[in-house]
Design a protein that fits this description.
Blueprint: H1 8-18, E1 20-26, E2 32-38, E3 45-48, H2 59-65, E4 69-72, H3 90-104, E5 110-114, H4 116-127, E6 135-138, H5 165-173, H6 181-189, E7 192-194, E8 200-202, H7 211-222, H8 225-230, E9 235-240, H9 248-257, E10 262-266, H10 273-276, H11 278-290
Parallel strand pairs: 3-4, 3-5, 5-6, 6-9, 9-10
Antiparallel strand pairs: 1-2, 2-4, 7-8
Amino acid sequence: MSRNGPTPTDKAAVDQRLGVERVEIVVNAGRHVSALRRGDENPAIVLQHGGAQNAHTWDAVASLLDRPTLCIDLPGHGHSQWREDGDYRPRSLATDVADVVSELAPHAELVVGMSLGGMTAIAIADSRPDLVRRLAVVDVTPGSGRHRTGPLFDLVDTTEGFTDLEQLATRAQQLYVRRDIESILRGIRRNAVQLDDGTWRWRYDSTIGNPAGVAAVADAMLEMWDAVGRIVVPTLLILGDRSPAVSVDDIEEWRRRQPDVRVITIKEAAHAVQSDQPAALAQLLREWLEVPMS
């Protein structure tokens, strides 16, 4: 196993033993939401990706966790249905995601969310605390909504019709300068779709990346500090040491509202901690599950 995560052989062995299947349910609103489930048992860990990503961003971490997991494609992302209203604010997403967790992982020990998925996880902890026993939020706070550009939103590219996967990879490499091109291409193959004319585009609703969509999500994030103050479960805030997404003021504000939050920084990681340091993140999540409940 490499320092940054499992080799393809390691991952294949774990996935073969646990079993990986794509599952889909129809939530109460009538939308279809898709997820990747590892293991036949009830998922112990629920993982939610960031904006412009999908469930596969957790592949390395899920394999390293080596426990039954449920990795959800947020509405409008991956194989999940797009919302007709174009509303991808965290609380709107949380309604659908809570239905999925209630159906497929009602006894999960830990809910993890990165970026937009982290804000969605906070919203679920606020509105459906029965579904969240422990919480881990990766590199985001409500204060991160101040960034209309930068690490939270730069990958959301509404451009249609990239000529080939290499062009998509060039775009992504501008944002993930520490990742090699082969690693980026592996991710792109699972987050891109080929159109009828032979061109490629990202596998998510482009509404998410238009100016109105970005503004709506950013503003909604800023309004969620009160939700942080209502979280009653053990909470871990995980930061990338190379990410500008969370400021010192944000951390202080979180601690003011939830004094017992634990904050840990992972070295050599930018905003996408699960991609930059999957082994370190998986180890941290395993340790968080072992911390006694107060």
